[in-house]
Amino acid sequence: MAVNLNPPGTLHPVPGVRLGVAEAAIKKPGRKDLLLIELAPGSQVAGVFTQNAFAAAPVQLCRERLSASPAMRALLVNAGNANAATGSGGLADARETTAAVAQALGCAAEQVLPFSTGVIGQRLPVPRMVAALPRAVADLRADAWQDAARAIMTTDTVPKGASRRVRTSQGPVTVTGIAKGVGMIYPDMATMLSYIATDARLTPEAVKECLRRAVEVSFNSVTVDGDTSTNDSCVLFATGQAGGEDIGPQHADFAPVTEAVTAVCIELAQAIARDGEGATRFITIEVGGARSVAEARRAGYSIAHSPLVKTAMFAGDANWGRIIMAIGKAGIEGLDPAGVALALDEVPLLEHGEPHPDYREELGAAVVAKPEFTIRVSLGRGEAHARLWTCDFSYDYVKINAEYRT
Q1: What is the dihedral sign for C-alpha 185, 235, 247, 173?
Q2: Among all residues, which ones are annotated catalytic?
Q3: pLDDT at 1
Q4: Which of 92, 276, 285, 340 has its CB surrounded by the most CB atoms within 10 Å?
Q5: In degrees rounded to 5, what are phi and psi of residue 84?
Q6: Phi-psi region for residue 56, left (φ > 0), alpha (ψ -120 to 50) or beta?
Q7: Using one digit for the tens of pLDDT, what is the confidence trace for 344-397?
Q8: What parts of the chain have a pLDDT lower than 50?
């Protein structure tokens, strides 16, 4: 069960974006598993993708097409099949499905981006997907973000979406995004799948920079289990329908738009950790006193990826020795234990590398018994800091992944 996470509330339509879903029986019948996103002409798109060496066919095709032009007209997303480790045949499948979209919408195939999520190593059921496309086209509408969030789910228990409206010097701008992902999450780019739209008139350069900044403090700051999917993709599209002047990175309106996009991405990233497979605890990890942000993140991820830490948190066991172990194995050169401080929420555990004199076991136990709490670390060697989000490991995490293909 997701930790303090409900289905998204109001998801504002973004002018220039229409979404439609359909049932293609990609993994099994009885659910909407195909999503089509249509973008207004002139929309600018940027994406970040997995660094996994077995990058899926759709990731390869997205990289190829975005490197040629940021001007896109549609995105096609399927759940239930990753189209990864499928070789040249998988790439041909991705091209065939996007060609079908292009024919249906009257645009070039190169203006369609494919995305897939699900089981690795199986070819796409292309005939069923192509047959379902007319139903997705007929379903296209501006207010279908909720349906879209559900259509891209795999082992998610809650659809994930977020929305913001911000005022700029040229008028109001809308930002709405959806994401899916609860396992195989680790930021070697972003997350499993996420789509964020704005009607701001961002230049191609601004779309890329906006996404880079937002991803760094959101999707690149969340982990469930330390595994990086073959299909991780995060895409920002700017339709320009808000009008006004072009917004480049130096324009006064770039900052408020980027802040809104970042806020949406942070909410989505936190939702991923809250809905981590089998999660019962949502954990924020704050590491300060580091010599660099990279060093702070290294310590934070060592804690977040430790099965010993994560299982203790599931048990509600304030076994802070496991946290110290994880910090110590992070490989931070020259780390002096005498400078390290540790706390759970506001309860101090360690000070100057020694147990805090006021700490009592019942104080720590009360913190980790809560559904969400913060692990606070100071490395005592600098001014840099980082904030990460993760979850615990429960019995259900093993069960969900053991039965994933059954």
Answers
A1: negative
A2: 191
A3: 67
A4: 276
A5: -120, 150
A6: beta
A7: 999 999 999 999 999 999 999 999 999 999 999 999 999 999 999 999 988 887
A8: 184-185, 187, 189-191
Amino acid making up residue 326 = A
- CA end-to-end span of the chain, whole Å? 20
Q: Which tokens hold the place of 77?
A: 């997303």
For residue 227, what pLDDT is reported?
A: 65
From the list 148, 238, 160, 162, the residue with the least C-alpha distance to 202 is 238
Residues whose CB falls within 8 Å of the CB of residue 61, separated by 6 or more in sequence, listed in order:
91, 94, 95, 98, 113, 114
Beta bridge partners of 78: 34, 116
What tokens appear for 218 in the block?
A: 């959101």
Q: Could you give all domains of the chain from N- to C-terminal order, each with its CATH number?
A: 17-267 (3.60.70.12), 282-402 (3.10.20.340)
Q: What is the pTM of this model?
A: 0.92
- Residue type at 370 in one-letter notation: K
Residue by residue, what is the 3-state secondary structure of the chain?
CCCCCCCCCCCCCCCCEEEEEECCCCCCCCCCCEEEEEECCCCEEEEEECCCCCCCHHHHHHHHHHHHCCECCEEEEEEEECCCCCHHHHHHHHHHHHHHHHHHHCCCHHHEEEEEEEECCCCCCHHHHHHHHHHHHHCCECCCHHHHHHHCCCCCCCCEEEEEEEEECCEEEEEEEEEECCCCCCCCCCCCEEEEEECCCECHHHHHHHHHHHHHCCHHHECCCCCCCCCCEEEEEECCCCCCCCECCCCCCHHHHHHHHHHHHHHHHHHHHHCCCCCCCEEEEEEEEECCHHHHHHHHHHHHCCHHHHHHHHHCCCCHHHHHHHHHCCCCCCCCHHHCEEEECCEEEEECCEECCCCCHHHHHHHHCCCEEEEEEECCCCCEEEEEEEECCCHHHHHHHHCCCC
How far apart are alpha carbons 166 and 12 in whole angstroms? Answer: 12
Q: How many CB atoms lie within 10 A of CB 352?
A: 12
242 within 8 A of 13, measured Cβ to Cβ: no
